[in-house]
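Question (not urgent): is this output format expected?
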Amino acid sequence: MQILFVAGVTPISPDPAASLAFYRDAIGVEFENDEDGYRSTSKLGGVKHLGVWPLADAAQSCFGTREWPADLPVPQATIEFEVQDVAAGEAELVAAGHILIHATRVEPWGQTTARLLSPEGLLIGIVRTPWLHD
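Got this back:
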């Protein structure tokens, strides 16, 4: 099989209204379609990275420990939204009442990130990835 590209990412939500509000209002996704409650858009650019991230590595990146905190949902995936200014995105999220897992910082691999959990428990990154802009 020859993979051409990632065709889509779609969180499966037990609370679609909360998820819609999060992705539309907090993250800024402009949904263009509504088919019986299934909201979607094809206006976002393509996926530039797909990986398998061990939970211990995600915990280390988020919390500085190899164990995911027992009081937080264990994420099943991460979605990273590339933005111009991570600190400005962080400020918008905090002003809207969202609780960050960690504030804006530069990761050891050079990517600037701020992270939080979505309503359905996905690990969301607001990021700036320098090598995607070279």
